[in-house]
From TrEMBL:
InterPro entries: DUF4380 (IPR025488). It comes from the Bacteria. Pfam families: DUF4380. This is DUF4380 domain-containing protein.
Length: 445
């Protein structure tokens, strides 16, 4: 092997994490760029155990099970669930009544046993489960990262390995850490934001699946069309048939957002009639396994500070050997602390929409955002027909590692006399446009 080949191999090993060793038992793999770091643990149900933006880890990780040898059965004592945390694939709908429901967790195969990992290239891997005879499927997902962004692209696939037709949805199950990172107890400013479907099948725009209907955590904002869920240490779960294609999990104390983006298909049927489901570990009552469960132990080793924001695919009816794939993306960004998420695009989130303040011959364009890409922004002025009147690069660098608190002063000279709106566009480091962050109407002279 020549020197160039050795350098290429070493680079591949570094990027996919063979050279990292923070565990002694688990054979962890990593996908990393200058912004994010994903820890993959194939032997515990093919989990992405952690997603970090800089030094901030979003996911809940069970410290009591960390780096412990997983049992060959995939189950804990007395066939219990080994809740390692992180992100994994399950099947939907969940239930314990018949074979058309997934009776997990636990699930010894899809959740507990090793997945095979394939290195496709230095930014892309595939994790594949063993064949699960009970559900009649095996699961896999291809995970890919990209330079200069926090985006992670995921294609989750289920294949019918049975001799009869099977019908399931794919459940992308993500556990977030909602504990207080600066002291004891839970984070009192931990939230989820998910758009409410204006044509929802649910009377209130969401349906309560577990726990009390009047849980104080549920705070629908019908004026803004957003479902807000505030973690207040009360157990509960809701489902939404959200059509907007995104859901946000926010640490408002430290100012971080994690976005899951997907494509909603209104013509399809969804398990639980939901494209997004949100679960909160906490105290209280809920019904599962055919009985009422009462949670009274506030010890986080028993009742963890776990907050789940989950994606559900449409049902797929598969004949033997047929496959179905569900695509979704993850993004993350630093945002201003104690700010809500108003909207989301493929390049960032809006915490405070664009506004224009006029002063004599000057306009000040303001707004607060989180961005998913490293690069810069440009201001694009549009006329009534949405044709470009003027473009300008104000010299503002953006990064997912820093919130964007925009205050852009523009002179109101003649060339802007026909402008009716201004669009703020995120560009890469080469000034190539990636997408619109927000836009606002302006007053012409």
């Amino acid at each position: 092997m020549n020197n160039n080949s050795w350098c290429l191999l070493l680079g591949l090993l570094l990027v996919i994490g063979y050279c990292k060793a923070d565990t002694k038992v688990w054979n962890c793999k990593y996908l990393s760029n200058d912004l994010i770091d994903l820890k993959l643990v194939p032997e515990i149900g093919g989990r992405v155990l952690q997603y970090k933006l800089g030094d901030y880890g979003f996911y809940y990780v069970n410290k009591d099970l960390y780096d412990k040898k997983p049992p060959a059965s995939g189950l804990g004592p007395e066939n219990s669930w080994l809740n390692y945390g992180g992100d994994k694939l399950w099947l939907a709908p969940q239930g314990w009544s018949n074979e058309k429901q997934w009776p997990g967790p636990p699930d010894p195969v899809l959740d507990g046993q090793p997945y095979k990992i394939e290195i496709i290239n230095n930014k892309k891997v595939r994790l594949t489960s063993r064949e699960d005879l009970r559900s009649g499927v095996k699961l896999s997902r291809t995970i890919e990262i990209f330079d200069g962004t926090t985006r992670v692209s995921i294609d989750a696939t289920m294949k019918n390995i049975d001799t009869k037709t099977r019908r399931w949805g794919i459940w992308a199950h993500t556990q977030f850490y909602a504990g207080n990172r600066h002291g004891k107890g839970y984070n009192k400013n931990y939230w989820a934001y998910c758009p409410i479907n204006e044509n929802s099948i649910f009377q209130k725009g969401y349906g309560v699946q577990y726990g009390l209907v009047n849980n104080i955590s549920y705070k629908p904002d019908y004026d803004k069309g957003i479902m807000k869920v505030h973690y207040q240490r009360r157990v509960g779960k809701i489902g939404l048939d959200s059509a907007a294609g995104w859901t946000a999990t926010v640490d408002g104390t430290d100012g971080y957002v994690f976005i899951q983006r997907f494509t909603y298909k209104p013509e399809k049927t969804y398990p639980d009639n939901s494209s997004v489901e949100i679960w909160m570990d906490g105290l209280g009552e809920f019904v599962a396994w055919g009985e009422i469960n009462r949670i009274t132990n506030d010890d986080p080793s028993v009742t963890p500070y776990n907050f789940e924001n989950e994606l559900i695919s449409p049902y797929a009816t598969l004949k033997p050997s047929e496959e179905y794939s569900f695509h979704y993306d993850w993004y993350s960004a630093k945002i201003p602390a104690r700010k809500e998420i108003v909207n989301c695009s493929n390049v960032g989130v809006i915490c405070q929409p664009l506004d224009v303040i006029y002063k004599e011959e000057e306009m000040n364009i303001t707004g607060k955002f989180g961005v998913f890409y490293e690069g810069t922004i440009k201001a694009v002025f549009l006329n009534q027909e949405e044709k470009v009147v003027k473009e300008s690069f104000p010299g503002i660098s953006v990064s997912p590692l820093e919130s964007l608190n925009l205050s852009l002063k523009i002179s109101r000279h003649k060339e802007l006399s026909q402008a009716k709106a201004v669009s703020i566009v995120v560009c890469d480091k080469n000034k190539k446009a990636l997408g619109e962050l927000d836009r606002v109407s302006i007053l012409s002279d």
